[in-house]
Amino acid sequence: MIGSVASAPQTDDMGLLEQAISYALGSVQAITPELLPRPTPCQGWDLRMLLRHASESLAALHEGIGAGYVRMDAADDSELAADPARAFRDRAGRLVAAWTSPGRQHQVIDIAGCPLAASVMTGAGALEIAVHGWDISQTCGPRQPIPHALATGLLQIAPLLVPGTGRPSLFAAPVIVAPTAGPSDRLAAFLGRTPGIGPELTR
């Protein structure tokens, strides 16, 4: 997942996460087994690898929201190997179900002994799942933009969640886009993607 920060602006982070999951699930619908070896906008990752990473992020979010902590040990990945698209859909469904269950709204999440505000974790999760939904959409062909309201909300918190000093291990440098670019293109560009030309060597 995206790196931790101590605080974030006041936004409806779980609402953003739900929107990001909905958008990413729409992108995943276009996946067929033949597309899994296709390169993605994430440097060195094919679609199968990207789905594995995104599914692992969903599992971590689910554990944080459901249990109040995130373990750092490796989880069983047999379902990812068998059908990564289905694993993504299943984990997304479990995450949403965990949040809507009574008593699951923890204020602080313990991540390997470090406390993190739940709103920060869900905001980071929304940003990561949305941009990987964008990556998947670019890879599979539909190239659907991140919805306007979702991209606008994420643009407000992205500079805090992806500080300049942490970019080398997370994302490529920002890409310049036209001043008239919409929020989806501006968010993708902020995270090192080049909108409109398919997979690039970014991460």
The total tally of domains equals: 1
Sheet with most strands:
3 strands, mixed
From the N-terminal CA to the C-terminal CA, the straight-line distance is 12 Å
CATH topology: Four Helix Bundle (Hemerythrin (Met), subunit A)
Class from helix and strand fractions: mainly alpha
In CATH terms, what is the architecture?
Answer: Up-down Bundle
Helices and strands in order:
Layout: H1 13-28, H2 47-67, E1 69-70, H3 78-82, H4 84-100, E2 108-111, E3 114-117, H5 118-140, H6 148-161, H7 183-190
Helix pairs in contact: 1-4, 1-5, 2-4, 2-5, 5-6, 6-7
Structural description of this entry:
This protein has 203 residues and is mainly alpha-helical. It has one domain: Four Helix Bundle (Hemerythrin (Met), subunit A) (Up-down Bundle), CATH 1.20.120. The protein has a three-stranded mixed sheet with strand order 1-2-3. Helix 1 runs parallel beside helix 5 and helix 6 runs parallel beside helix 7. It starts with 12 loop residues before the first helix and ends in a 13-residue tail after the last helix. The N terminus is likely disordered.
What are the main properties of this structure?
203 residues; mainly alpha; Four Helix Bundle (Hemerythrin (Met), subunit A); 3 strands; 5% strand; disordered N terminus
Briefly summarize what is shown.
This protein is mainly α and 203 residues long. The protein has helices spanning 13-28, 47-67, 78-82, 84-100, 118-140, 148-161, 183-190; strands at residues 69-70, 108-111, 114-117. It is built from 7 helices and 3 strands.
